[in-house]
Amino acid sequence: MKFKVSNWASYEAGLRRRGSLTPWVTDEAIAKWQAPRRLSPGGQAHYSDTAIETALMLRLTFHLPLRQTESFMESIFALLGMTVSAPDHSTLSRRGTTLPPVSLGRMPDRPLHVLIDSTGLKVYGAGEWLQEKHGGRARRSWRKLHLAVDAASGMILAQTLTEK
Known about the structure:
Radius of gyration: 21 Å
Shape: extended
Strand order of the largest sheet: 1-2-3
Distance between the termini: 22 Å
Number of helices: 6
Helix content: 25-40%
Oligomer: single chain
Structural class: alpha+beta
């Protein structure tokens, strides 16, 4: 299979950007960050369900404990120059149990334009950092992650993790 690339420099720059993390927050998300006032008696929630779900999704994506999730969100907001505060770890823990579980959506009934990509993942084992620090060769274990993504919505349709 051959690919013709008309502008090699932009293609190369695109490959370098594949590993970058570029966060952005829309104005709609900021508008929904604060919780609406409760009309019933009791304490007022400071963060909306959207804010809590966002934090918990970041936590799941990057496999972070709650305290690190709080710090990670604060650092993203600081980098973006935003004055929004992140929910603290105790709020995430308490409010996370009250939210409905995330359910997978139905497959669309329309024809799909599917993008498939694979990437190699290095699996670190116990003691590998010692070998890296003090030298020596070790057997590297690799896995390959294959994703099928709907081009229109960005929804992951299928995924699998394979051996070498």
